[in-house]
Fold these 2 entries.
Entry 1:
Amino acid sequence: MTLYGVGLGPGEAGLVTVRGKAILETADVVYSPGRLSRSVALTHVDESKIGDLDFPMTKDEEKLRSAWKEAAAEIAPNARDGDVAFVTLGDPNVYSTFGHLRRTIDAFHPDVELEIVPGVSAVTAFATAMGVEIEAGAGLSLREAANGASPTGPDRLILFKVTDAPATHEGLVEAGYEVSYGRRLFMEQGEMLVTDDPSELEERDYYTLAYAEKADLEVEQATAAFRTDTGSADTSGDAELATSEESVTDGGERDPQRNATGSESGSRSAPSEEIDGATEDGLLDLERAEGCEHGDCEGYW
Ligand SMILES: C[S@@+](CC[C@H](N)C(=O)[O-])C[C@H]1O[C@@H](n2cnc3c(N)ncnc32)[C@H](O)[C@@H]1O
């Protein structure tokens, strides 16, 4: 039988893949490493099938290794006797806790069959939520910007763990980037926010990313010439292009209102609901204050 690493997508139950949902529905046990992944999984599986694992909020590698060994020892026998799933937000192979589990299983329980079901990663979901188009050949780099860091280099950057947006912003703007931010994109819990104003993000929230693009970046695309002065396309087929025959540079132009299908872009409030006896709002406050306690960032905070 098999251990499935199932990517749940960014946090809306409707963005779990069809295959991921089928695995969750048939698995004997579904392990979740955190409160958010658990709540997404619960849309597709009965609570009685959920197996919680305990991960310490520490950077102490010894403690982390021992937590992963314990988790693998709990999961392995169930994966020999039946099908089990380990869920992660986003994609299991993108910057995820699942990598730790896979390596620990490989080391200590190499007979366990393992299969990965990809999920919609924040690495791609951000583009839709923030109205960014990544064209073919674009150099895009994924970096970490915790505690106000401002990594620079390529023309385009996705920055994870933006915990001090104002400080990160300052460094990036100084280095010639235009920056926009996405918080809790396509997440059922909390408020989705897309903004280019870092002062709106002063409150720390682990689920915040940034997209930075060199301000002088010019992208020439053939279809940009279809644009008219009014912004609406001319559909007559043979009409003169309203602007000119010159191609228009449209790299970096963003219109989040036309994106984020399924949930309106900009600010969105999820209903407050009761989870494990505490209100969702209360737990979210706690997570923010503590830097993502039980928020699926174990080992990666
Ligand atoms: C450890 S990485 C997890 C990535 C995940 N495995 C994926 O594929 O999306 C966590 C970071 O991803 C970003 N992130 C993940 N989900 C997000 C979301 N729904 N909205 C905004 N940022 C998100 C945040 O920057 C967060 O600090």
Entry 2:
Amino acid sequence: MGTTIEGVYADFMRYLMENTQRFFEMTTPNGTEIWARLRDTIVIILATPNGWDIREQAVLAKAAIRASLVTKENVGQLLQFVTESEAAVHYALANQDGDWLKKKDIFAVIDCGGSTVDSTIYRCVSTAPLILKEVCPSECVQAGGIFVNREVRKLFEKLVQGSLFSDPEIIRSMTSAFESDLKPSFDGTMEEYNLKFGSLKDNDPTVGIHKGSITLSDNDLRPAFDLVTKRIIASCFETLIKQRTKYVVLVGGLAESPYVRRVLRKELAKYDIEMIMVGDHWKKAAGEGALISYIKQFVVARAVKATFGGCVYQNYDKKLHRDRKHMIQVYADGKERVEGAFHVWVKKGTILQGTFAHKLPYHRAWDATSMSDGDLIRNLGVVGIEVFGWEGDGVPIWCKDEEGKGVLSGMRHICTLNADLSALAGQLRTKNEPGGKKFYRVDYEVCIYFGGTQLRAKLQWKENGVLRESPVAIMPYVS
Ligand SMILES: Nc1ncnc2c1ncn2[C@@H]1O[C@H](COP(=O)(O)OP(=O)(O)OP(=O)(O)O)[C@@H](O)[C@H]1O
Ligand SMILES: [Mg+2]
């Protein structure tokens, strides 16, 4: 009732932060003093599912602000995102003996989780520094650990049918005993497995129950696991083979199952693919890998999945803008311009690496003849540029319709970069446009750069020779 997803995340985050602080202060000598000193510079790294992009990140960022993990001002610097599979790669590289990964190797990360199995394929572009590139979009299949439990519950229902044990409450305790005892140990090497679920008084030889334990045959249990392993094989293997994958890094809770591991290892071996286990039973691959990726500043090259640009007043170009000839306006600087044009900053398919950075000069102009100082300050206070993303091919000419209101179909409004340039009011000189009218002009730059794992944008301008910046906006790189 009235609970938002942002609120739920904010509660979680607050809880985690409070307890992290408590734990840190209790277990670190001089912990309270150290925490207080470093609190405002703590970088929070969130490992998120592979398919998440700016929509989800924006919710998490708002939640993090609401939970006071970061502030509105420092969120761009102190809140970082990394995908779970990327974090797993870093974890696997840091925790494996030998340098298994060589330049040009293709490898995959398969994350066998509770409800989904996600696979991502990377190519190693270079090992020092480590540069990885996603080869193709991640795949996700509904084949996690809960499906094993679902099958096993059906098995229990079938086995105890007609007996006193055919009771939802008892089936539930059997399934929960399976989850904690048998699921982690089942390896498919014995003929029978015992599962303790009740008390010594629970007996019924006709359904294989003896002193609170039920006997299950290998043949009974295998199909429950096979359902999932078969789905994983059916969904991921074709791509693994097609992409000539050399290694598969297996992570996630279900990958801890000795049976699942064995089946997948055997199946992969048929195609000469080697399996790399990271031993993630403490569930550290995502968390620790996220930290490693930040500390070591590993570079992952990514291809931008959409074309990004700003919505601008563009100089009228009859080759491009003929269809809106009737919309030409004479701008304050005397030039003929059209509104709502798409000015491309980064094209779809551009490979981003640590060094990627672009600056684009922009300016705004206002007619000075009728402008009071107050109006000028007000105008300068809200200089902004709307950022749009285009996921299709090619480069559209327009972002918006003729009226400048409706966004064209296929264009996605990402964010608006805003800057308060009002402090410049006193320094601005008027200029003369070709027709002799006076106008004010203010210059600023849009900076687009690859900040570790994300494409970011901000505005920059000079105030009395001092460089100023707007808050940083994060562009989604995945469509
Ligand atoms: N040692 C183990 N042996 C077998 N299965 C295990 C083991 N440990 C955890 N699991 C299973 O792994 C699943 C949870 O895995 P994980 O924690 O990676 O999932 P998740 O990240 O929460 O889910 P998802 O990624 O689908 O959102 C559960 O189904 C659990 O039963
Ligand atoms: Mg998971």
